[in-house]
Predict the structure.
Amino acid sequence: MVRNVLGSILALIGATAAVSSPFQAWNDGRHGRYFRLDELFSGAGITDARAELLGSVFLPFAVAALLALVGVVLRARLLVALAGVLVLGFTVLWMVRQGQAEGSLTVAGDGSGLGQGLLNSLGGGVFLLLGAAVMSGRTRRRTTPEPQSAPAQEPERGPEPAPPVPTLDGDGWPPRG
């Protein structure tokens, strides 16, 4: 039970970090909610075009948070792990596409380069995976009852002998004793 509680807390922290990350700076002060989702899969790469909220990288993170929440409620480790893989997958995909568009990925002390939102996204994915690893999941109950041991059978004997018949003396009375 303790493992499930600890794993659930880690998973919820990860989901919160992942969902909040698009609202923070990802690269050169540009928030993640402005990166178009379809740019991650197109040949053009990352552009300066702004995206609507549900057309941005926020959408896969919201889906991952929903998966994590359902996984925590159902104590399904697989759903929580899937949410972590989804968050990390889209974050790494964004990093690859951004690196292709700019030629490199940098972190600078003046606020240019990679930002806090990207770090929250990576951390959120890692926390989701840690939560899935820590959770013990559901305890499985057997649907078929355990076979009970059969009572010990007595060895077969022949038919029960008839009770002894009292003998009678000549008058028809039992013998006196």
Residues 77-102 form the longest helix (26 residues). The chain has a mean pLDDT of 85.
